[in-house]
Specification:
Order of helices and strands: EEEEEEE
CATH class: Mainly Beta
CATH topology: Pnp Oxidase, Chain A
CATH superfamily: Hcp1-like
Distance between the termini: 24 Å
């Protein structure tokens, strides 16, 4: 059984790696549709539309002009998430994401952080990194 360390992950907008990423999430879900008839004694369901959302956590880097600075509110980006790295054959997810939220924070004994929330627009595709 294979497993991977979080430090192997890479997050890109298009082909550009986003700098200083410390964590990311992706949540895929499917709506359900009740197709029970009036005389049914149990509920039956069908799968409806699917969706995906997530977040990207970073240490703030204002010099990352092709990564963090592209992630502005309302931006539509090609998001590529590589959980095990971005070398040939590694699994990755890709899709169009809309940036829906940005937050920043800092503490006296910490590094300034930046968090981006996104909503998928269209299908999320999983595949292997091509050669």
């Amino acid at each position: 059984m294979a497993n991977h360390k979080g430090s192997e992950g890479v997050v890109k907008t298009g082909t550009d790696t986003i700098a200083e990423v410390t964590a990311w999430t992706i949540d895929e879900s499917a709506a359900t549709i009740d197709d029970s008839t009036l005389d049914a004694t149990t509920t039956t369901m069908q799968i409806g539309r699917t969706s995906w959302t997530g977040s990207i956590e970073c240490f703030w880097d204002e010099t990352d002009t092709s990564g963090q600075e592209v992630l502005t509110i309302g931006a539509s980006i090609t998001l590529n998430l590589y959980p095990e790295g971005d070398t040939t054959g590694d699994e990755f997810a890709t899709g169009t994401a809309l940036i829906t939220g940005i937050s920043m924070g800092g503490a006296i004994d910490g590094i300034i952080s930046r968090s981006f929330s996104y909503q998928g627009s269209g299908a999320l595709t999983w595949g292997a990194v091509p050669a």
